[in-house]
Amino acid sequence: MRTEATDRVRVIFSLLDANGNGVLDPDDFELMGQRVVAAVPEADSAAKDAMVSAFRRYWTTLSDELDADGDGTISWDEFTACVLSPERFDRTVADFAEALARLGDPRGDGMVPRPAFVALMTAIGFGQANIQTLFDAFGPTADDRIPVATWVAGIKDYYSPEKAGIPGDLLVGSADA
Predict the structure, then answer these.
(1) What does the DSSP 8-state code read for residue 97?
(2) Would strands 111-113 and 145-147 be described as parallel, antiparallel, or unpaired?
(3) CA Rg value for the chain
(4) pTM of the entire structure?
(5) Which helix (H) or strand (E) holds 56?
(6) Are 165 and 157 in contact (CB under 8 A)?
């Protein structure tokens, strides 16, 4: 497993622990779902529902696959197994990526404007400088938008342990330096 993948997983674990109790539990995914759908109020109800469903599926998949001790929570040690076996999570990650990018496309034209991208990534918990750097790495159009497909691919890459040097690596560490 690449160091970059471990770093990405460490970041995502800390962000998904929305209630800050040190483990992942169902409340984290409900809280995160609420935060994320609130970030783009102009998105349609179907996109919001799909995002909440994707967060719930994310939790269910993690719980079913990783809760080794059956305590209803996922510890850091349990969570690292997702990096070691990404094929167990491919469909869940794809659903999550598609729902998030769709939520960021409130006009439904296949493009995500910077304000929606920033709002969603901020709601998830990423730092502003990192968000802006990532958006720029996706090669926005002259009207400051990125294709939904580009963001979906970027999210999938973020969860791929064999990937390095990807735009998602810009979310790890400080972009302010």
Answers:
(1) H
(2) antiparallel
(3) 15
(4) 0.90
(5) helix 45-66
(6) no
